Input
Amino acid sequence: MSNKIARVSALVYIALSLGFSAIFVAATYLTGKDYPPVARWGGFIWVFVLGMIITMPIVIPYVKKRYEK
Amino acid sequence: MARSAVMAQTSRRHAILPVEGMSCASCVVKIEKALRNLSGVIDVKVNLLAHRAYVEYEPDKIGIPDVVKAVQDLGYEVLHEEAMLHVSGMSCASCVAKIEKVVGSLPGVTGVVVNLPAESVKVEFYPGTTTKAEIKKVINELGYEATEKPQGHAALDREKQAREKELKRQKRNMWIAWPLSLVVMLGMFQPYWIFKDIVPMWLHNAYLMWALTTPVVFIPGWQFFVNSINGLRRGATDMNLLYATGIGAAYLIATINTLWPDAGFGGKGATFFESAALLTAFIVLGRYLEALTRGRTSEAIRKLMSLKAKTARVIRDGLEMEIAADDVVIGDIILVKPGESVPVDGEIIDGYSAVDESMITGESMPVEKKVGDQVIGATINKTGVFKFRATKVGADTALSQIIKLVEDAQASKAPIQKLADFVAGHFIAGVHVLALLVFAFWFFMGYDLFFTPESRFVLSPYSLGSIGVFGFALLLSVTTLIISCPCALGLATPSAMMAGTGKGAEHGILFKGADAVEATSKLQAVVFDKTGTLTKGEPSLTDVVAAPGFDRRQVLQFAAMAERNSEHPLGEAIVRGARDEGLELADVEAFNAIIGYGIEVRAAGREILIGNRRLMTQRGVEFGDLLAEAERLENDGKTAMLLAIDGKPAGVIAVADTLKENSKAAVARLKALGIKVAMITGDNQRTASAIARQAGIDTVLAEVLPQDKANEVKKLQERGLNVAMVGDGINDAPALAQANVGIAIGSGTDVAKETGEIVLIKDDIRDVVSAIEIGRATMRKVKQNLFWSFIYNTLGIPIGAGLLYPFVGFLVSPELAAFFMAMSSVSVTLNTLLLKRFIPSMRREEVRV
Output
């Protein structure tokens, strides 16, 4: 049960964080500026790290509660 | 329904685990969150400064070892206790197995080792889950005899060891972080200012600085990475995560720019190794200073614990022997010589001495003790030799009760802490969101709009010219993470509360919780019970007025006969008065107490009625001119009681209770503090007014029946006043409970039984003033601490995020942010420590006198 919760949670917070990072990368193109690849992908990683940190503590208890119900 | 509720209740257990290694409010949130996420855990409350975690759990779903493992996985330590017992009666290996099996099955027991030849049992367990007494009990129930080996100070020593271990660890980290970081800083600054003349050029080599920074990040800084990963795995975040992301990001960028300068992160001109190194060094410095200063705020408990005597000189079977104080049993006769500590509570049976009770009651003068007097464990015998019989041992002694009360108080949370808890609890996620926004702003807009290649960090010589858009946005994002740490906010309230409750205990004033301290600071009115609180409570006979047809001695004799079985102090005063005059008192044939009115008795064949006017009116006895006599006596502050024999008025008897020595001074000081003072009593208005006049009290609530005292308090509260009721904890219990702050006075040593939020050990109403002053001083500290913490975060975050940069070119480096963060925590703790110097005004005067 707890493994399943962990798996589902991981899936959700990784997906959300990747979503944030994708939005960031998309924004670098949409602004029309010529960002160097390092800035673009470095930013992708930093946003992903922060996204994980933000979403993990929110998603894990949420998923756990849903499963317990 | 009811049955299932009961079953649910009985299937729950709770444990209070001692947790070491927490450094700020976020650790609290992290542990609470991680434990709540465990299946079977119902409730968790963690107290940062008491280093305790209260866990309520369902034993059929989860065990204490699982809870402990979860806490340890987060990077904290759960201390375990060790009990060394002497067990007699074991004969073979099966006894060993039996004891090991039964004791091992107790909740929280992690190890049992029985040594048959040595007749000893060593038990390791988590304190708060089971007790030594419980362990001894189960062994005794198996048919053996278990006694504790002398280890009274073991808990204290263990706590000290844990603190020393943490200090040693952080000191080691400082020795690694600081010298290396300073060298890295010199290397980074080498081409600038005067450094180019005094620092060799080879120190500016990027590879050397990378080699010097790496051990700083991975040895002293490793704790932050490990703790954050463990926390994240359980879905919890804390300050370690801020540090880890800050240090990690700074180090990673500098490393990439050194090893792969063309990777596009700013190249060799953006190798800010000193950021990563100094950031780690400052955080470690903060941890070290916190460990050093925070332990001192809980000194009160340690001081109390250290008062426990280690040994006792017991006389058993006529032989004098020295045994461990913990092995003293009720009924033991103990000999105490001058200069020795009294090991347990008891009653003197032989000898005379003066005993210093200041450590328990706060009373500075030694108290004379004679046969029949009570002695308190941990007090010090000053002059004579005496023997006493132990009446309370172990957890029942006054000292143990006081320690428990203070520990409980320090483990509680004040209402004002809720805001700080809420902020600290939601801060980490908020800060990371903010860091994300800061990064996005400077990446997409700020860099193009405001960045100039001449930009510098404050107190840094080199420019950020070669840093790219990503490096610049990342540095500001990291700085925001570091500067946002709400450590000071988490420490602000509990550290002051610990110091305040400790200060109270030092003066014999026991606050039962942090909420009591806060409520005391807000008091606007104090209501004193009269008898025994403002007055000595031992009235004596002053006047006997006989009605026509009766003589004085006859009136006194009948009144004393009626009161012979009374336990009321007024009745006792009459009986004492009659006996002093040598009057014979016949047995009572029938007795009926009419609460709030008086008594009705049949003695010597006569019907005797003694009580107040209402009683006589109710029974239709007309007192005529005698009422004027009663009034005159009452105007003098005496309590006049009317006596009727066989339905006829027989006389008036007056007794008087005098003010305590310090009542007037205490009332005057309360008024000077802006507090409204009132007196409540069952006495009539005139008697009450006379006493109130002497005490300097303007508001008198007289003729109040015991059950109505709470209503009177309520009436004052309805007028918008925060009211304290001061009285004895038993008779005045409803009024004490109704008041915003109930103050039980003169409780002596049985503090645990008292009603009310504050227990005053000494029978001295000046301690009411001291309690209010301590409450106010503590709350002043709380507010100062909260103010500075909020100011730090409120100003620090926008500056760290680069808000001032577009206007003044002002940028805070991550290491400077770490320095500010460390200083904020240390300044709050140091500010709290100033409370240690606080002395209540009346105590100051007493010392001066």
Chain A has two helices and no strands.
